[in-house]
Amino acid sequence: MTDDGGWTISQLATEFDVSTRSIRFYEEKGLICPERTPGGYRLYNKRDRARLKLILRGKRFGMTLDEIQDILGLGSVDMDEAEQIRKAITYGQRIMADVQQRMDELKIMHQDLMDIGDKLQARLDELDGRAANEA
């Protein structure tokens, strides 16, 4: 945090392990709106920091920037907190369903690989048994 009670772009980039270019991109998209110092430097307040954290969390969960913008209520001036929460829940449920589907597919793949491994091991044991009998 700076002496002004905010964060510089470099401080946020370091804290959240993202590039300064990414943070500028989110600013260009209107997702965060830092103030400017008299020298023209960006100064991010607590709200900007919280939004950046939500943006990065949303991206990690597979949300698009449009979805994140929707949750933050940036597309609608009239969106209240309850509507933001409803949208976040809806997107969260969709992501959880996608994750569950991927997990189900991975379980099937895991079982298929286990079955193939068992068959290959049985075949190898059979071949090793023949080799031992022939020797």
Automatic annotation (TrEMBL):
Q: Which residues form the HTH merR-type domain?
A: 6-74
Q: Which GO terms describe its molecular function?
A: DNA binding; DNA-binding transcription factor activity
What Pfam families is this protein classified in?
A: MerR_1
Q: Which UniProt keywords apply?
A: DNA-binding
Which InterPro entries does the entry link to? Answer: DNA-bd_dom_put_sf (IPR009061), MerR-type_HTH_dom (IPR000551), MerR_fam (IPR047057)
- This protein's name: Transcriptional regulator, MerR family
The organism's lineage is: Bacteria, Pseudomonadati, Thermodesulfobacteriota, Desulfarculia, Desulfarculales
